[in-house]
Amino acid sequence: MLVENIRDTTTRKDEVCTIRSKFPNKLPIIVERCIRERRLPLLDKTKFLVPHELTIGQFLCLLRSKIALETSQALYLLISGKNICSMTASMGEVYSQHRDPDGFLYMTYASQDMFG
Length: 116
Hints:
Elements: H1 3-22, E1 26-33, E2 47-51, H2 56-66, E3 73-79, H3 91-98, E4 105-113
Parallel strand pairs: 1-4
Antiparallel strand pairs: 1-2, 3-4
């Protein structure tokens, strides 16, 4: 492992510790656009603090409100770059199963035309 990667991981771990101590009832989430996504804009902010009981479906609604989508487009969330979770799963459940060793839960978003 590169020294720079170790330093970045340590920095992120420290950031999560600070966040969790200030906001113990919130989960640190990082949401980024999928690398191959060309239609959706980048989010203004990529870091979110969400309550444990918020569902994936509710979080998806929050993201949809931040991204202007056409009615023919869907918004998909990938957890840790590879998993799609149930819309009824709580963020607490997803966080406990898929969080990164640095303490953040990483999600990526993408669109897909529904009618063509």
